[in-house]
Amino acid sequence: MNSLCHLPVKIAGIGAYVPDEVLDNARLEQMVETSDEWIVKRTGIRQRRIAAPDQATSDLAAEAAQAALRNADFPAKDVDAVIVCTCSPDHIFPSTACLVQAQIGAGNAFCYDLQAACSGFLFGTAQGASLITSGIAENVLVIGAETLSRFTDYTDRGSCILFGDGAGAVLLKKSDSESELLFAEMGSDGSRSGILNINAGGARNVASEETVREGLHYMHLDGRDVFKLAVSKLGELVESLPAKSGVDMNDISLIIPHQSNERIIRSLCQRAGLSEDSAFMNIDMLGNTSAASIPLAMEQAIREDQLQRGDIVLLLAFGGGVTWGSMLLRY
Ligand code: COA
Predict the structure, then answer these.
(1) Is 160 noted as a catalytic residue in this protein?
(2) Which listed residue (25, 71, 139, 288) is catalytic?
(3) Is residue 85 part of a domain?
(4) Which tens digits make up the pLDDT trace of 269-325?
(5) Claim to verify: residue 237 and residue 317 sit in the same structural domain
(6) Which of 42, 125, 243, 308 has its CA 20 to 30 A from that of 80?
(7) Domain range spanning residue 158?
(8) Looking at 131, 148, 176, which one is the last position of a domain?
(9) How many CB atoms lie within 10 A of CB 230?
(10) Is the CB of residue 318 below 6 angstroms from any atom belonging to ligand 1?
(11) Is the dihedral of CA 255, 259, 262, 264 positive or negative?
């Protein structure tokens, strides 16, 4: 059974960070054969943020984590665990989470990375909630952070238009109110790992002159296959949600989907029988920031009063692995 229900855990604070540099469609038009019109029509993306040369994933993650701790009015030294969800870590090891710990001064925390690509934040939140309800930790910082621009081939128009950099973080704590994690379902299919991956730089294809010459250190994306699989898996998750969770779709105030493609998100709303306004979207401004996209969107939705305490929010994700998941939270 890969679902869990009614865990008394709340988001005590949330924070976000995006780098200053903007990469808009007009600039991409100068780099590859594409057009603003094509990109907007096929993806909904108008611009993305790109990390500065001296910034890596841990720097973005630390900024978001500090913002979440300020939001919760909670000292870093009291954090019990730091989970960084990322597929663009600073290094193979040490973990990006350990680097974040040092930057923010969370000296009493245990820290590790979680790799589920674009589904990372959803998997990480489920794990953080489990650590709290099992009694292993009292509070957990869950951070989704990526610098996918470093692994993007800016000569490949099929992928370079999609991705941006950023980080979002939540501080999870035991809930003493109606806030709770109502439901989570997660899944994976390793037999489809080849449709979205970074081939070289790990133990299978160690970095070499040849791997660099062939561009195997860049992200490889079979866009059409990922698109079809994402629509079908996310559609299944949404359709089975009421029966599995016991929650009526009409009681959901907001859907926060992973920001992968506006067309994927619109088709999901249709399948759920919900209006397209039910889904929060900021893909136009940030592109696909992988594991960072859900917490970045949630932070903005809260800031803009589109998500309020007591509301039920549905998180949906699909990503490399392939991995997927749905989660219901009473915020
Ligand atoms: N500009 C202009 N034309 C482009 C282009 C671009 N940036 N990228 C691809 N094309 C062309 C293709 O070469 C193809 O031309 P052809 O018909 O002459 O062969 C045509 O547009 C259609 O290509 P296709 O790949 O079928 O387009 P698509 O509608 O599937 O859109 C993606 C491509 C990548 C936007 C879309 O598949 C997608 O968003 N996939 C999901 C990717 C994703 O989010 N992955 C991350 C994990 S969630």
Answers:
(1) no
(2) 288
(3) yes
(4) 988 888 888 899 999 999 999 999 999 999 999 999 999 999 999 999 999 999 999
(5) yes
(6) 308
(7) 8-176
(8) 176
(9) 26
(10) yes
(11) negative
